[in-house]
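Course exercise 7: structure representation. Students receive a sequence record and must write out the corresponding structure in token form. The form below is the worked example handed out in class, using Putative pterin-4-alpha-carbinolamine dehydratase (216 residues). Read each field label carefully; the graders check that inputs and outputs are placed in the correct fields and that the protein name is recorded exactly as given.

STUDENT ID: A-19
EXERCISE PROTEIN: Putative pterin-4-alpha-carbinolamine dehydratase
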Amino acid sequence: MMDSLTTVQILDAGLVDWRKLAQALHARYLTGDFAAGLRFVTAIGEAAEAMNHHPDVTLTYPHVDLKLMSHDVGALTERDLDLAHRISEIAREQGVAAEPHAVAEIELALDTADVAAVGPFWAALLTGSAEALHGADVVDPKGRVPLLWFQDTDAHRTPRQRFHLDVWVPHDIAEQRIAAAVAAGGAVVDNDNAPSFVVLADPEGNRACVCTCLDR
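STUDENT ANSWER:
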């Protein structure tokens, strides 16, 4: 089993086509049409077989989305960096452009003072099995639903917002995304933990976080 990498190691790896979001490396390649996308995916598959490491691939008409993570470690390792570099080489060979700022990921967050009590319920509801609860996360092994994580909080009786969205974006566009949300009527509620995350609210007070991989 390989060692997991720190965020600094990942950022220093020179992966210009890729961005780290919540847990994995993500990339989008603009293939332009389905046939070009299929050629690109076929070449990626051959490289993945040769390296015995396989990405998650989504092939659509105009682009290909890729996700890399070492599931046996539950984190990013050198094998992910190696395959990411190889996929970038394949893209250059085929004349396929990357659009790293287009990637994003949604997490659901639920404030709770008792993960042991509520966690199995949400795991069973979302995935069909309470066994999908891993620590403070509900992880769907089939990738059907977003990650749900439980944010520790004090027990409370007063009604308040318990669910919020964590919107993971590339670290180099976070300020732009926050500015766009503010210009659209939102407000920054808390930026004490920037650039790791910034809490925003819509005009009615519903909150969400813009998250990046930095300072984690």
